[in-house]
């Protein structure tokens, strides 16, 4: 079961430095998010970002609330931006992880695999990212099964035959005529030799019963 990671903004020294608008809007957004009222949570996060557009944690939670509303493309765009711009390793890792979840839901398996790998590069101990990576790899393998050994061998033989044909020089009309004359001459010589041997043996006949 793939699940989303949500970050609840904790009270810290840097948090108090933000304006009262950011503080209230973010707290309300988190409460709405917990209550699964994602549209209201989105409104509050947007209010907070108007006051502090660089607040990466609020952006992350906004992306989560968008995904919960089925706005996957918008959420994916936000997760992509955060995964590239975020300086904190934890936030970067979780942004890649959630990006992978959205891409998996959209059946973009190859892109989701890359997202999970990037998440693990930031946090190698993330078990959920590792499990989701393995699941995505398995799904991709089922979708694109490897070709059978016999098919590969047949393809290889065909390629070799085509290469041989390409390598063989084409015969000119003059060379073809010379070869034909040689064959006719050899055939004539063989017939002459057979006639001589026949005359010596008296032309043996097959016995009747």
CATH class label of the domain at 11-70: Mainly Alpha
Structural class: mainly alpha
Main sheet characteristics: none
- Total number of helical segments? 10
Q: If classified by CATH, what would the architecture of the domain at 11-70 be?
A: Alpha Horseshoe
* CATH topology annotation of the domain at 11-70: Serine Threonine Protein Phosphatase 5, Tetratricopeptide repeat
For this structure, what is the CATH homologous superfamily of the domain at 11-70?
Answer: Tetratricopeptide repeat domain
The low-confidence parts are 10-15, 201-209
Radius of gyration equals 38 Å
Question: What number is the mean pLDDT?
Answer: 82
Basic shape: rod-shaped
Q: What portion of residues belong to β-strands?
A: under 5%
Total number of strands:
0
Helical percent range? Answer: over 70%
Helix/strand order, N-terminal first? HHHHHHHHHH
Query: End-to-end span in angstroms?
Result: 89 Å
Can you walk me through this structure?
The radius of gyration is 38 Å and the shape is rod-shaped. Among the domains are: 60 residues, Tetratricopeptide repeat domain (Serine Threonine Protein Phosphatase 5, Tetratricopeptide repeat, Alpha Horseshoe); 60 residues, Serine Threonine Protein Phosphatase 5, Tetratricopeptide repeat. It is mainly alpha-helical and 209 residues long. Helix 7 runs antiparallel to helix 8.
């Amino acid at each position: 079961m793939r699940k989303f990671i949500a970050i609840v903004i904790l009270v810290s020294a840097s948090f108090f430095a933000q304006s009262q608008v950011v503080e209230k809007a973010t707290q309300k957004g988190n409460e709405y998010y917990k209550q699964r009222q994602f549209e209201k949570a989105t409104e509050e996060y947007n209010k907070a970002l108007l006051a502090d557009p660089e607040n990466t944690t609020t952006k992350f939670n906004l992306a989560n609330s968008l995904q919960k509303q089925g706005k996957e493309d918008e959420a994916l765009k936000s997760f992509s931006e955060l995964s590239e711009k975020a300086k904190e390793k934890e936030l970067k890792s979780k942004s890649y992880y959630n990006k992978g979840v959205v891409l998996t839901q959209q059946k973009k398996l190859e892109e989701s695999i890359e997202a999970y790998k990037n998440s693990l590069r930031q946090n190698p101990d993330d078990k959920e990212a590792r499990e989701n990576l393995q699941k995505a790899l398995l799904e991709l393998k089922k979708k694109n099964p490897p070709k059978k050994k016999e098919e590969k061998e047949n393809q290889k033989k065909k390629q070799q035959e085509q290469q041989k044909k390409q390598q063989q020089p084409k015969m000119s009309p003059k060379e073809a005529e010379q070869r034909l004359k040689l064959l006719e001459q050899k055939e004539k010589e063989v017939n002459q030799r057979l006639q001589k041997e026949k005359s010596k043996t008296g032309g043996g006949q097959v016995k009747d019963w």
